[in-house]
Amino acid sequence: MEFSYVPIVLSLKVAFAAVIIVTCTSIPIAALMAKREFFGKDVVESVITLPLVLPPSVIGFMLLYVFGKNGPLGKLFEQWFHTRIVFTLAGAVIAAAVVAFPLMYQSVKVAIENVDQNLEKAARTLGAGELKVFFTITLPLALNGIVAGLVLAFARSLGEFGATLMIAGNIPGKTQTMPIAIYFANEAGDTGQASVLVIIMTIFSFLVIYGLNRWGKGSRRDSRGGGA
Amino acid sequence: MLKAFFQKKLPTFELEIEFSLNNGILALVGPSGAGKTTILQCVAGLQAPSSGEININDKIVFSSEQGVNIPIRKRRIGYVFQDYALFPHMTVEKNVMYGKPQKGSIPNKVLTVSNVLEMLKIEHLRNRYPNQISGGEKQRVALARALMTEPELLLLDEPLSALDQDTRSTLQQELLKLQVQWQIPFILVTHDLQEAEMLGDQIIKLDHGKQEELRKFDKAQ
């Protein structure tokens, strides 16, 4: 059978879209969770990180329930946008975003918590309001953690399989991403297609981890040299 | 002109303080954990006292009775932190510029970054980052940054404790000069009685939240 690049393109589309959603949502939520105390915070924290430990099939089942034809959000989408989520690329993006969110969230939250609070206090004594403090002090100093979270979220989105299969299905050319293509190619005995995709995924994942480790070492060296 | 009397409950004792300062330097001296930094933070607005009143230039910035607690950024107080708290991702110039008041927000003041950098002899460090300068230089940058906001009161939390003896003596002299030049009250926290005696026009000794006045000589009186 001829090798198809389509799953790679679909996977990249899904991963980019998921990372954009995750970035826009995780940074404000992580900032709020790192800086504010409120009733029920522990419960919210647990719900946010739940996708990290839940089996992908459970997440897929829940997403089907929520975004399905008769699900609460599925119905809304049908009414407002005359479109459905299930068995479309949008479903794959949602699945990828849900599983990638906790990784990005945790990375950003730790990074924000690690910013020296004295620097934020100093900014306030210099006349800065909370938004200015966040955008000029907290965010730039948490940038390393944010970028690390971004890369992890991208890799996780690219590799998402179980929940994606349940909500987006396996439609070649439409929702069949790399991991799903590997599974079904192998099932169908097309080891050629499967092994090329496996090699691509492995090399990519290796580069992500290697790059993060190298970069982590570099930024630790920088901060040792610093000591402001 | 600063007038303050307030209480603040701390985990192991209650802090009680009362002082007034027209001009000159008030030195708060006492062992670690005596509540010195807490006093500075209450005046600055980084912490709220349990009760009492703080008055800067006839403007009430905190009053438990009237329910007033003006946010830090509107108090016009310069604060120099013990560890300098310079922004590591900004150059010396950007650090100093950070709190520069918007044009026209304070009438009759024309203070430029170059003025302040020159006054503190750190002009040559303009484009350096905090991790590229020495402890004494960091201290000068922190002072410059606080003064750039054109504060009505300057708070200094153990500003010289991390410096070697020579740098320390030089900076002590410069602090005295700066105060005369700037004509605003300074509150200086130190654990070193000698330093307090050298710099303080007024000295308040603190022990477990209780104050003992050691010297009262207000330049304006």
TrEMBL record, chain A:
The keyword Membrane applies. It is found in: Cell membrane. GO terms for cellular component: plasma membrane. GO terms for molecular function: molybdate ion transmembrane transporter activity. Keywords: Cell membrane, Membrane, Molybdenum, Transmembrane, Transmembrane helix, Transport. InterPro entries: ABC_perm_TupB-like, MetI-like, MetI-like_sf, ModB_ABC. The chain crosses the membrane at residues 12-34, 46-65, 85-105, 133-155, 194-212. Its main location: membrane. Residues 8-210 form the ABC transmembrane type-1 domain. It is a multi-pass membrane protein. It holds the Pfam family BPD_transp_1. The keyword Membrane applies. Belongs to the binding-protein-dependent transport system permease family. CysTW subfamily. Part of the binding-protein-dependent transport system for molybdenum; probably responsible for the translocation of the substrate across the membrane. This is Molybdenum transport system permease. The lineage of its organism: Bacteria, Bacillati, Bacillota, Clostridia, Eubacteriales.
UniProtKB/TrEMBL annotation, chain B:
It comes from the Bacteria. It holds the Pfam family ABC_tran. Keywords: ATP-binding, Nucleotide-binding, Transport. Transmembrane segments: none annotated. This is Molybdate transport system ATP-binding protein. GO terms for molecular function: ATP binding; ATP hydrolysis activity. It comes from Desulfosporosinus lacus DSM 15449. SUPFAM superfamilies: P-loop containing nucleoside triphosphate hydrolases. The keyword Nucleotide-binding applies. Residues 1-221 form the ABC transporter domain.
